[in-house]
What does this fold into?
Amino acid sequence: MNEREERTKVEPHCPTDREYVDIIKADSKIDPSFITETGQPAKIVYYCRECKKIVAPKRIGKKLSFKCGECNKESISFGTENSIASYYNIK
It folds into this structure.
């Protein structure tokens, strides 16, 4: 590997525990900067495919994997309120 390749080598970014916690905490608040940039507020919701409703999740390990707080199954989908509602036909 020559000197130029070494300088342009990109190291992958691994989020720290704190960053994961910040991601999860952010779902309870709407970021004001997002509203000013896009004009639309977005809130992250967690949908259990087994219970067929929006639930409070439990985090599994240090990954962005979640369990349902009610049925304890790992069939959780997450996204914005609009995307989850349109994908799962929730009114």
Summary: The CA atoms of residues 64 and 90 lie 24 Å apart.
